[in-house]
């Protein structure tokens, strides 16, 4: 009889220890994910065509088209991200948004826009005239960031 009680006590202690280990693994896993993501979150976005760009946004684009930068604009409760490449001597220069990251910092957030720039290749037939390549993306954001950064990658 006493042997059964000691076996039950042992099993209860073993169950408690296993439960504690499982809880510790879950907690440390959660902390590890938080640590490795550093508050980063990918922003969902959709590249929109020229005819879909809101008029208010089209009106401010000329102020920025000569610069190489990223900017965010809120129009009618929608947040748009624009990446401009600046003035180029011919056609054939393109810009595409690869990824947008939202990084939370002290109760606010900043955006990091990862863009790919492509230049025309030697011998490509391109339009002869100054161009201002840009791309506009509609995001799932509801508010504007306090800061926005542009990280570019050039495709050969």
UniProtKB/TrEMBL annotation:
Task: Report domain PrcB C-terminal positions.
Answer: 80-139
* Matching InterPro entries: PrcB_C_dom
The protein's name in its UniProt record: PrcB C-terminal
């Amino acid at each position: 009889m006493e042997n059964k009680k000691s076996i039950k006590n042992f099993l209860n202690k073993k169950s408690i220890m296993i439960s504690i280990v499982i809880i510790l693994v879950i907690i440390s896993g959660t902390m590890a994910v938080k640590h490795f993501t550093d508050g980063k979150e990918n922003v969902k976005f959709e590249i929109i065509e020229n005819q879909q760009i809101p008029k208010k946004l089209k009106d401010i684009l000329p102020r920025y088209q000569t610069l190489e930068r990223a900017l965010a604009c809120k129009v009618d409760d929608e947040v748009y991200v624009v990446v401009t490449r600046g003035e180029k001597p011919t056609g054939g220069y393109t810009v595409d948004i690869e990824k947008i990251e939202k990084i939370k910092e002290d109760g606010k957030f900043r955006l990091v826009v990862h863009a790919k720039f492509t230049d025309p290749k030697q011998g490509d037939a391109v339009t002869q005239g100054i161009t201002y390549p840009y791309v506009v993306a509609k995001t799932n954001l509801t508010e504007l960031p306090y800061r926005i950064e542009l990280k570019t990658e050039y495709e050969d």
